[in-house]
Design a protein that fits this description.
Layout lengths: L1 H14 L19 E5 L4 E5 L3 E11 L5 E6 L5 E3 L2 E3 L5 E8 L7 E9 L6 E10 L5
Parallel strand pairs: 2-9
Antiparallel strand pairs: 1-3, 3-7, 4-6, 4-8, 5-7, 8-9
Amino acid sequence: MLFAFVLLSATALTACGGDDEDNPTGTNEPSTDPALHVILPTSSVTLRQGGSAQILVEVSRANCSCTVTITGDSLPSGVTTSTLTLSSGETAGMLTLTASANAPLEVNQFYVKSEAPGAEPKRNIISVSVMPPPGS
C-alpha cells in the first residue's frame, strides 16, 4: 500500500512539472519574454562580381509585435547586404546581397543577423559563392 502511494506521488510530481529543466521555477506558465524565430529557406546563394542577389527571410515573433531588423554579419570581403526592416505584422522580406566588381572569387560563409527590441538576437549561417561576371 505504501509503495502504491509513493508511486502515485512521484507520478503526480512529474505530471505537474516538479522537475523541469526548461522551466527552473517549477511554474507551468509560458514565457512572456519577446522571442524571434527566423527561417532562411535557402542555405546558400551565388553572386556574380558586380552583381546582386536576394535571400528570402521569414520571421515569426512570440510575445512582441515589434520591428525586426535584419542585416548581414561577418561578411566576406567585397560582399555587402542591405538592411531589411520588418514592421509589426510583416513576416517576410528580401535581404539584398551585393558583390563588388573586384570581390574575391571564393565560397565563404556569413551570418544573417535578426534583432528586435527585448529579444535575443538570432544569427543564421549562410554560404555565399562569388563567381565571375557573365561572359568572363
